[in-house]
Amino acid sequence: MPASADVTQRVLDLAAYIAHERTFTLDRATLDVPGYSEVPRGAHGEFVDTSTPAHEALRSTFRRDLEALKAAFGIEARYDAQEARYELQPPFFSRAERRALIAASAAVEVSIEAERDHDPERLGAAVGDDEAEVFLEVTDTIRLLIGAAHRRRGVHFVYEGKFRRLQPWAVGMWRRHWYVVGHDRDVGDRRSFRIERISEVDLLDDEFEIPADFDRDAALDMDPNRWGTDPPLHIVLDVSVAFAPRLAYLVGGEITARQDDRATVETESKNHEALIDRLLELGTQVRIVSPPAVVADLCERLRQMAELR
């Protein structure tokens, strides 16, 4: 890291300046960026005499700051001779680092304060190949459900073509997808809903209290092998040999057989809805061998999805 807080601030100010100033030159940077020593300048900020010790000291400081920027923060600024200016060089993160950032962003917890000004807009789940940005879009539906959970207000909405009434106890993410968990008034039990499948959300006038024994973290863990109250089901899946290790990881199962280019992955599920969600994400890569009930549930979900189009 740079030697002092002042130097660190100057280096970061310099990086921000280079990133946003399209007519960057040494003259302008050392004039506009705080922390550089003064040297004689003309009426328009240009250097009067570039042969003075003060000017050479300024150039040395500038070069050291560029080196510190790269060494301490991994940000490289290169000089473009054709354009006669410096430019920051993306990407700032390696592919492995971007994957780690995407995974980390899925663990972001969102809270909402009583004031409307604190509603989340962008939080930080996609990392561009040519940008150093991590961001997560929070939709109007997510914000409305977070607000309802905070104010203990019931909601009603359409979910996969069906009208539902819910007391939202918690809103959060699991594996980059948003879920709302709460008491479904129509079925009289706790249910979880994937928010991207929710539409036409409105607040109700009724108020509620969240049960004292409600575990938010457990409720938002949609792993079919670690959470759920459904009767355990033994699931057998058929998949290509190449994709089998990835599938075993995703469903918390194990590879039990291989033959030619196909493999069998077996797992147990206590959250049937979450399992169906995951299998739908995998598309045609995976075939359900058994049990027939899971095949029927998946076909019904596909039918409902088709009717919405």
Note the main attributes of this structure:
single chain; 309 residues; alpha+beta; Alpha-Beta Plaits; 3 domains; five-stranded antiparallel beta sheet; four-stranded antiparallel beta sheet; 13 strands; elongated
Describe this entry's structure for a reader.
- This protein is α+β, with helices and mostly antiparallel strands and 309 residues long.
- The protein has three domains: 5-88, no CATH class; 99-214, no CATH class; 233-307, Alpha-Beta Plaits (2-Layer Sandwich).
- Helix content is 34%, strand content 27%.
- The protein has nine helices and 13 strands.
- The chain has helices spanning 5-20, 26-32, 53-73, 95-105, 140-151, 216-219, 244-251, 272-282, 292-307; strands at residues 77-80, 85-88, 126-127, 134-135, 153-159, 162-174, 177-184, 189-194, 198-207, 233-240, 254-259, 262-269, 286-290.
- The strands form four sheets. The protein has a five-stranded antiparallel sheet with strand order 8-7-6-5-9. Strands 11-12-10-13 form a four-stranded antiparallel sheet, with helices on one face.
- β6 (162-174) and β7 (177-184) form a beta hairpin.
- α1 (5-20) crosses α3 and α8 crosses α9 (292-307).
- The longest helix is centred in the first third of the chain and has 21 residues, at 53-73.
- It starts with a helix and ends with a helix.
- The model is unreliable at 109-135 (pLDDT under 50).
